[in-house]
Amino acid sequence: MINLAAQESNGILADDMGLGKTIQAISYLAYLKEENGIRGKHMIICPKSVCNNWMREISKWFPSSRAVLLQNTQEER
After folding, report:
1. pLDDT for 16
2. Is the per-residue pLDDT at 46 higher than 90?
3. Does the residue 51 lie in any domain?
4. Quick count: other Cβ atoms within 10 Å of Cβ 17?
5. Which residues neighbour 38 within 8 Å (Cβ) at sequence distance 6 or greater?
6. What angle do CA 10, 16, 21 make, to 5 degrees?
7. Is there a domain that residue 57 lies in?
8. What one-character DSSP code corresponds to residue 19?
9. Which one of 12, 27, 53, 76 is most buried, counting C-beta atoms within 10 A?
10. pLDDT, tens digit, for every residue of 6-45?
């Protein structure tokens, strides 16, 4: 992801479950902040079923960040 950003290119993490995409994304955000001073506001869009996992992993691996969970509370019809 760092290499893609250096080339001003976009990318996506996609592979089988359990291969560390969450940690890769969080470590990239930490890299942006710690190495480049890019604090920014970043949006992570994920299925509702993994929101709590994302929040837990962010607090564990990137505790200096401020994560806010926004989710739709209306039931689908």
Report:
1. 84
2. no
3. yes
4. 5
5. 32
6. 50
7. yes
8. S
9. 27
10. 899 988 888 888 888 999 999 999 999 999 898 889 988 8
Burial of residue 67 (number of CB atoms within 10 Å: 0-12, 13-18, 19+): middle
Task: Tell me the C-alpha distance between 72 and 51, whole Å.
Answer: 12
Q: What six digits make up the tokens of 57? A: 């992993």
- Helix spans in the chain (H): 2-6, 21-36, 51-61
Q: How far apart are the first and last CA of the chain?
A: 38
Nearby residues of 57 by Cβ (< 8 Å), 6 or more positions away: 22, 23, 26
pLDDT of 77: 64
The whole-number average pLDDT for the span 53-77 is 89
With respect to residue 77, please indicate whether it lies within any of the assigned structural domains: no
Token digits of residue 71: 């989710």
Tokens at residue 11, please?
A: 């990318």
Q: Which domain holds residue 39?
A: 2-61
Identify whether 47 is part of a domain.
yes
